[in-house]
Design brief:
423 residues, 13 strands, alpha/beta
Length: 423
């Protein structure tokens, strides 16, 4: 509170009223910089209060701007500075050959997406892939001869759905992996506390680790992120909308740059949506940005069968759904999952079992379109009823004369028969 004890007071007459005739001569000399303030103390307090209000207003506006950027899928700390185009002539660009881990399936320097339903065998397939990378063993279909073996390489593993001790290591062991060449990312340390890994916040830490590994002469050839949806949230986007392409690109595209910088294959594992009538390219859980960011989209599904054929839970297919690179495998691999004993639990002496894939053949006739048609529609729940009615309906036409589809549908609707979609 401002002290007014020494402040100037206007002169008053005998009645206690201000004597305006004597005001001007009695006014103390005034500093022109005070403005409307009584003294410098009052002015300083006012300026401090105004600065505090402006700071609060700036914070509110900054929060609004960050929220708007997040809503649009942009980093909240993006600069507002003018953006300028960068150019280069392609005349001096040197061409590079694509380097593959598994030709037609997993390229280095790019993101590969592995999709499938829960329990389809995605982890089993990539346990086998990891085993072949870490040992240099031939790929399925290659002759097991000295020329087919490669130099063993290392794999970086980030997984949250399966227990490493109970699921991942037994699978890798069943497939014959060199476990010394597999390194698990357990999480991150921050301020002395363990925290969850984030694809938004820990990109630089991974880049640093990859650079250090290469400098030591032990580079990584593949990074597995299983499942990718578990590691999308972070400090910038605490909740990533899987149906927002802008938000997903904000998180995924820096990892594509990392893959190219370190010449590493990044494999992101995800799930299929439950709608089996959609094409595989559009069944990938979340936004189309997943499928658009990757250069190779593979799927693990059950082997197709006839309607009257009993399903075989162990018969699977490893299929290339989309590849934006010149090499294409030209079919899909059939395989079976086999259960094998890999060891004994040291705690209780119980046997440890795991699954591994037994590769069969590369079937050129298995394609995404042949497995799930592009325009295949949903089946009606009244299919059986409609079939019986349809047969009875044509009994009244002994000459089997042709009828328009619209006529059949109209009669069926009049008789309140559920219809299946006609394709």
């Amino acid at each position: 509170m401002v002290d007014l004890t020494d402040a100037w007071k206007p002169p008053v007459d005998a009645n206690g009223h201000i004597d305006w005739g004597k005001v001007d001569p009695t006014l103390p000399p005034r500093d022109s910089e005070l403005g409307f303030h009584l003294n410098w103390k009052e002015k300083v307090e006012f300026e401090q209060h105004r600065a505090k209000l402006m700071e609060q207003h700036a914070r509110v506006e900054e929060t609004k701007t960050k929220r708007e950027r997040m809503r649009r899928g942009l980093p909240p700390d993006a600069s507002d500075a003018p953006r300028e185009l960068m150019f280069r002539s392609l005349g001096g660009v040197q061409m590079h050959a694509i380097e593959w881990l598994w030709t037609g399936w997993i390229p280095k320097g790019y993101i590969t997406l592995l999709a499938g339903e829960t329990g389809a065998g995605k982890s089993t397939v990539f346990a086998d892939v990891t085993a072949r990378i870490t040992t240099g063993a031939p790929w399925p279909g290659e002759y097991d001869c000295p020329n087919a073996w490669r130099t063993p390489e290392r794999v970086l593993w980030l997984g949250s759905e399966d227990s490493i001790e109970e699921m991942t290591v037994p699978r890798l062991t069943a497939c014959g992996a060199n476990l010394a060449n597999v390194v698990e990312i357990q999480g991150v340390m921050q301020d002395g506390k363990r925290n969850t890994f984030s694809m938004q916040d820990d990109l630089e830490a991974v880049s640093k680790g990859l650079a250090e590994a290469r400098a030591m002469g032990a580079p990584f050839a593949m990074l597995v992120i299983d499942p990718v949806t578990s590691y999308l949230p972070g400090q910038k986007l605490r909740k990533v909308d899987l149906n927002d392409a802008g938000q997903l690109r904000t998180v995924l595209e820096p990892w594509l740059i990392l893959a190219q910088t370190h010449n590493i294959a990044i494999v992101c594992v995800t799930h299929f949506a439950k709608d089996t009538t959609r094409s595989m390219l559009h069944r990938v859980l979340g936004s189309a940005a997943f499928a658009q960011t990757c250069r190779s989209l593979c799927a693990v599904i059950e082997q197709p069968r006839q309607e009257d054929e009993e399903p075989d839970p162990h018969a699977k297919v490893f299929m290339q759904v989309k590849v934006n690179l010149p090499e294409h495998p030209g079919g899909a691999w059939k395989f079976r999952t086999e259960r094998v004993e890999v060891g004994v639990d040291h705690r209780n002496g119980k046997p440890i079992y795991a699954t591994k894939p037994a590769w069969d053949e590369l079937d050129a006739g298995l394609t995404p379109n042949s497995t799930v048609g592009k325009s295949r529609g949903p089946k009606s729940q009244y299919e059986g009823v409609f079939a019986m009615w349809f047969q009875a309906f044509y009994l009244i036409y002994p000459n089997h004369e042709w009828l328009p589809v619209t006529t059949v549908k109209q009669v069926a609707l009049q008789e309140k028969i559920g219809l299946v979609t006609v394709v």
